[in-house]
Batch of 3 targets.
Target 1
Amino acid sequence: MSHTITTDDLAQRVDDAARAPFILDVRATDQFERWRIEGKAALAIENIPYWTALTDLEQIVSKLPEHQEVVVVCAHGGSSGMVAEMVDRPNVHNLEGGMDAWANTLVPRTLFDDGTHFVVQLDRIAKACLSYAVGARGQTVALIDPSGSVEPYLAIAEEMGAQITDVFDTHLHADHISLGRQLATHANATYHLSPGDGEDAAFDFTALVDGEVFTFGDMDLIVRSVATPGHTPGSTSLEVHERYLMTGDAVFVSGVGRPDLGGETEPWARDLFNTIHAKLSPLAPELEVCPAHYTARAESRDDGTVRRQLGDLLNNDAVVSIADEAEFVDYVVSHLGEPPEVYAKIRLVNLGLSSPDPELAKELEVGRNECALSK
């Protein structure tokens, strides 16, 4: 009988070199190449399609370590379960739910908690997406850039005894399907989006207003600008408790958001330069930038959170610190590459102009985000 491991458990282990397992991925090679299990630790990983077990099980067994945990992975957990059963070793575990479950696994990490107020970063590790819960116990909570699965967000609100009153999208996402409207509807909350990104939306939303203040307990969430544009025309930054700056995809802890997802590459690159130097630079350098994405788990801190002081980012990041506009635009435009074709389809979903069935929605989201441009 094979053993199993949950995606929540695996998410903790892949960041810990002492506990990192050996990954046996039994999906087809083309699926493996599209995306795979990754973590902060350097993972040993082998891709051998599951049907090999039916004809040459020894080929699989010969690749597996005897004294390290092995996690067998497939798309849904069925084929990997079969392979784990056939190998029949105590150190071999099947990943429950496979890559389907991994895709929606969120790891909550606390940024701030004074016993009443809290700021939680939720890491959708498979897609390197970050979202946030900001609120006060027994009172109200806001959600920022939610994606993946609604359950973890509802669980945080329930755990804190807080009512979800506001849901924010910092911009029109292209790499993943937003849960913003779904969660707002479920909780009877207000859904907020910038007018610049919601102009073509097929649904109603509450337009973000520059300088608008939302209060959760004694903690303020301030809309710093409805235009920190560049990645999208309406990219918006939200300042929380004079400590955190949720920048969406405008800037990351390393690099900037790519400005070519709406077809206006050079003009949006100039907007992005202006955002950095006219909108973000005047803010307090002690603010910690908390983005909506990261490029690699190596960017995370020892506690697993992804954040960086604004002043450090502005002064020391190889892309963000470029001081000459022409040089910045030239670098950005020349290093972009082609955006994934699927991003245009995801944007339509997030505008309410397309309604894919669950299987198609799942397919649209396959793979990590490719929204960042860094050196």
Target 2
Amino acid sequence: MKHRLILKKLAKGIASLSLVMASSMVSVLASSHSEAPLIARDRFADNTDTYAFRSIEPGREKFVTLIANYIPFQQPSGGPHFFRWDDTVLYEIKVDNTGDGVEDIIYQFRFKTNTKNGNTVLGQSAANEDAVIKSLNDPDYNKTQTYTVTRVDKKSNKSKILIKNAIVPPANIGPRVTPNYEKNLGSKAVQHLKGGGRVFAGQRDEGFFVDVGGVFDALNLKSIGMNGGYDYTKGFNVSSIALEVPIKDVTRTGKMPKKPTDKDAVVGIWATASRQTTTVINPDGTREMNGEWRQISRLGNPLVNEVVIPLKLKDAFNSLSPKDDAVAAPVVLDPELPKIMKAVYGIKIPTEKRNDLVAIFATGIPVNKITGPNYTTFLSDGKPHEYLRLNVAIPVTPANKINRLGLLGGDVAGFPNGRRVQDDVVDIALRAVAGGTPFTPKTNIAPNNTLGDGVSENDVPFLNRFPYLAPPQAGNTPAR
């Protein structure tokens, strides 16, 4: 009965959400990241990927890095305005450290656009001086953005501004306008926070590597192994928020846990985007937003809304809080994708209820014989809550020893223990959904436990330093 009431409430909300989407009047780009009908029409609020891991950079082990990416499949040459954060969207990274599906800590990001010269025919760059953007405060960086980060502690109902008017680097326009991009602009946009943390907001290379075409052509992959696929995100960029904070700032006790089985060792992380419900269009064409904030995009674990949640619930799921995720539990217990795999590949799939998937995506993995006494990502009050779960007491795996398959590859610091940028979540998810893991021993056989999309790494190397995602592709240097 409770689930029906939640669905009725969501159904009523869809109408108002549609109005919010329609009022934004943004450009549309169909992509694998636009996983639900409504968010596919609101590109600048589309949350594409969320990452959470203990900082890998040497000397930063007592910090956690949280990354939320938005605005998918950005063509690097998309000038003259290029891609920018939406000033009317509230971007948030949320942390649940008690397991009830309700955020306890929120990091809020609000952006503001400023124009130096409105008389130029250009946009983000202009020939105000010599047409070259050599630094973040260069006069030729014409259309700049700044942002404010606010930390909200829901328990104490207190908020604190961590940084104000931090600057967003320009797009990587090309070697003439933005020479030595990462040295002059990208790395300089990393801002230091009080308490030792860091923050970055700006364009990065699209680090989600996947054979998109094969996946959505009924799993018509060019290869179902480690190599041989085509990375359809190659050459594109994405807008990334990267936040590094002390681990103690996200745990329920406010302390650094000593061992992985401590009660405060696991935290849940997801990201959202929200818009206000009312848009006022002024005579000069400018817009003013006001009214209640409505969540229109949400992302914790990768691929859940794309390949697990059914079409009729996708928009509702994007507006849902993890505390209400029980409404989606039936489709996790009996997902459609394994049945498609059976039809396409002729493989044997699990026939029992998929409690293994519930553990991976909705409750966390409790201590068990398979993963041993020192591994757990369990964080739940007995109900399913979909988000990334990170055990902040599990030691960091050095960058040169990371296994792309995370837990399935014996690397306990990787997915589904949080998610690092190097984790091959597509291969991991395909094997998990097919039952190709030790949690489903009857189907933990080839090809179930060797499945992949043929793309095992990003087209360009990730950074081994914050913000970890690679510098953005240059607009005048085609990479596709």
Target 3
Amino acid sequence: MVKRGRPRKGDELLSRDRLLDTAFSLFLEHGYGNLSLETIAREACVSMRTIYSQFGGKAGLFGAVIRRCSDQFVTSLSIEHVQELSPEEALTSFAKQFLYSITRPNVVRVRAILIGESPRFPDLATQFYDQGPQRTLDHLAQFFAQQQQAGYFAAINPHFLAEQFLSALRSERILKLQLGLEPTPDEVEIDVWARQAIHLFLHGSLRRDNTELEPSRHT
């Protein structure tokens, strides 16, 4: 008889990744409310007990899926990643990765599912916001605070700076994508989008040779 011991750490990570990949695919296919944990467990070849012990239930599993998606944003602004970059270069790197990820069709679909089902499942909305947008916002605010200490940014509330920066990045184009009114942008379009938003955020829209704009002659 073969004696089964505790799974090795590498095997555990592979099993977790397989579960998260399967859950993500099933959430996309069935939505949130119509998908049972039994289905997820069966398709991922894990036990219900494993899901409950690791994630606490379906909302926690959904949150883990979103957290894994947001890991790349957090990593892109880590101290190790940005220490050799200027703040503008660091923000550009973050912005391109952020915009590319949130404009992928599967991610747009997940957001649509969330918006449609969160009134019935408040835990779903909480998990999504805490593990995705809030986590990204907090990390971005930390970045701005560090750069303020270095003298790069003005003494403005770093969370407000983070909120405004993310708002500038998303712009009206995200709504158009969600409504199917605009095609998925490619990497070249993402690069232009990110650089335009960052230039406006960092340098503003007023002409530098005027403290007060003259009225337009064409009005």
